[in-house]
Amino acid sequence: MGKGGADSVRKVGTEMGHFVPCLALSTWAFHAFIGTCWRYCLAQRDPSAPPYTSRTWEPLLPFLPSPRWRRFNQLVPIDSLFKTISGSLIIITSYRFPQIVCPDGVREGRIVGQHVMYWAHAMLIVACVLVGVVELVAIRVRFPPGTSAAVMVAAHIVLVIIFSYHQKHEIFDQTIHELVGHCFFVAAICGVMEVYQPTSFLAVSGKLFFHIMGSAWLGMAGYMLFSGSVFWSPVWNAQTDVGPVMFAPIVFIMMMLGLLVFMLIIFALVDLLAARRLRAVGPDAPEEAMLALTQLPISKMGGERQGLLVKSEAAGGYSAINGQVDGDALGSSGLGGFGVERSGCLVRNGRA
């Protein structure tokens, strides 16, 4: 391979293979976590707020009080568009699925090893784009409840396969990519829990936490492999150095603990902001005003797009129109304990 080919492979390995996906995946997950915290905190602090249920998309910065911004969030599915457009641009401009079969020479008819990475990176982006496409289609198509969450589980499984079976180069390269795969594996497990229990805030938070951790570690892996740092060099004196392989998981743990503290701080700040906004609205605010605080679409179509069931379409449940929960439905769906606990919490807080 010539110098130009080597530079191309290095660019894909560092910028397009690690840093750009790290930035795109982390940006979406932090945005989703903030929106999830906002809706959860509103639901826990005020009984007239729509009850919390999980979604794969969130309004952009829903705590901003501007009516125009609220209208923008209600009309434009910016979250789904970000997944679809950004992922498509990355594939078109960087990966492009190059020729995978060697056309001539001694390797004629065999796989072009240098192009495998393009296909692998492209497939993980395609999986993420698919989530956004399903969310956009769901604006008009009545998919079964939880379809978007199930598709996101499938996308996480794709990432697990890509990173867990990364067999190129030395053990150091394989190890740090396996750590990325471990993160998305746990994210997939949390996603399955979310599908079965959409009212679980911890399931959604766990999914987003390990999604962010995997994305951040993907960027860190790019630095370790392609920065040229002697500290992370897996070879010393023409022999394999086990130091970087053993120390990389320690750095991974430090990053994970730091991310945990950071996300707890975000939750605390969002909760305090939600309490302040609720005091400004007042305890006797109508349900329409509480729904406006979430910046969710008020129309029936918007409610269905969020994965929330209209009462006539299920054996009782959440009505996307008026933001009410049928207590009998909670009991029949196995969520009665949650409903009782939430009601008791609201009474104790003096909000009901």
TrEMBL record:
Membrane-protein topology: Multi-pass membrane protein
Pfam families, sorted: DUF716
Superkingdom assignment: Eukaryota
InterPro entries: DUF716, TMEM45
Localization annotation: Membrane
Statement: the UniProt record of this protein carries the keyword Transmembrane helix: yes
Transmembrane segments: 118-137, 149-167, 179-196, 208-226, 246-270
Record's GO cellular component terms: membrane
Swiss-Prot/TrEMBL keywords: Membrane, Transmembrane, Transmembrane helix
Keyword Transmembrane: yes
PANTHER family in UniProt: EPIDIDYMAL MEMBRANE PROTEIN E9-RELATED, TRANSMEMBRANE PROTEIN 45B
Family statement: Belongs to the TMEM45 family.
Name the record gives this protein: Transmembrane protein 45B
Lineage of the species this protein comes from: Eukaryota, Viridiplantae, Chlorophyta, core chlorophytes, Chlorophyceae
